[in-house]
Amino acid sequence: MYSYIKGKLTVITNEYAVLETGGIGYKLFISLNTVSKLSKLIQKDAMLYTHLNVKDDALQLYGFFDNNELMVFKNLLSVSGVGPKAAMSVLSTLTTESFALALANGDAKTISQSPGVGVKTAQKIIIELKDKLAKNIDLSLSTPTEEGSPLSTVIDTLSVYGFSRAQITQAIRKVDTKQSIEEILRQTLKILGEN
Questions:
Q1: Which of 19, 23, 108, 171 is the residue whose CA sits 20 to 30 A from 120?
Q2: CATH top-level class for 4-64?
């Protein structure tokens, strides 16, 4: 029904945002990843791609910062037993890139870290979406590294400590990667320790 909504971001919480356009405030349920990207735009213009979920007793709008997140959400909904709440939980726990990486690696443990998503559901998601999403998300971009690169070294080093590649990849995205390997390693480890 709606492809996207663009307007002034008047309200933002950890669960939803309100975009005002044409005198109407649209309440859109959003992931924590979208919250982090929108938090600097309060009282400014913002745009969210949308998905309208129709239930027996309600119409709910879901908002996404980019098309990749929207595509992953729709694909998650196509898995039997995964509703909007579980799909948003996955997108709040993992970035689209780290989700794609977990999918490619068959890493049910990482996906099941999302509240409300058990290991069996995570395995079902992998079985049903692995090939489907591999065509749509460039999995080579899911990892910000090439074999033997400094970031690859950081990932390999930290995975020895029991962190999943998806967790490490997510943490690295918050670090300035133009620094020395030692500094990237130190800051990434600090971020991982805070979670």
A1: 171
A2: mainly beta
